[in-house]
Amino acid sequence: MDTKHDAGSKRKLEATVACRLTQGEYDALLQKCQTANLRLSEYLRRTIIGNETVIRAAPRLNYADRRLLSLYSALGNNMNQISKRLHFDHLNGLVTNDTYQAVLEQLHLINRILCSRLPP
Q1: Which one, out of 5, 14, 19, 91, has a CA that is 20 to 30 A from the CA of 59?
Q2: CA-CA distance, 82 to 51, in Å (whole number)?
């Protein structure tokens, strides 16, 4: 057990917290401790306990919204596959310039329609 003198009184530090870091993260943490002239445990206590950072969880989506996002994702994937194939076929002379431009314009139109339907 670790004890720490705090303003003349003793605090009993009983709980241990552990986490894994990459070597780069650990080195950066040690550098911050050195800059603050604090031991690692004291630096972490001050940072974690004294920090006012608030992490807000992303709002949970209802079933309809999750389904809508899934459909948009599928549509986007399909449009991407079409555009890649169109480009490849155009480069290889399998699609005329007129057809290439016409399909590309339709893909852009579909994209604008889909984006206009997304919530802000």
Answers
A1: 19
A2: 49
C-alpha angle with apex 65: 75 to 83, nearest 5 degrees? 10
User: How far is the C-alpha of 95 from the C-alpha of 87, rounded, in Å?
Assistant: 9
Both structure tokens of 31 = 């550098």
Return d(Cα 51, Cα 74) in angstroms, integer. 41
What's the CA gap between 77 and 84, in Å, rounded? Answer: 11
Q: Which two tokens stand for residue 49?
A: 């306990």
94-108 burial: b if 16+ Cβ within 10 Å, else e: ebeeeebeebeeeee
pTM for this prediction? 0.48
The CA-based angle 30-33-36, given to 5 degrees, is 150
Tens of each residue's pLDDT in the chain, 120 residues: 344 444 556 788 888 888 899 999 999 989 888 888 889 988 888 888 887 555 566 778 889 888 988 998 999 999 999 999 999 999 999 999 999 999 999 999 999 998 888 776
Residue whose pair of structure tokens reads 């079409």 in the numeric block: 82
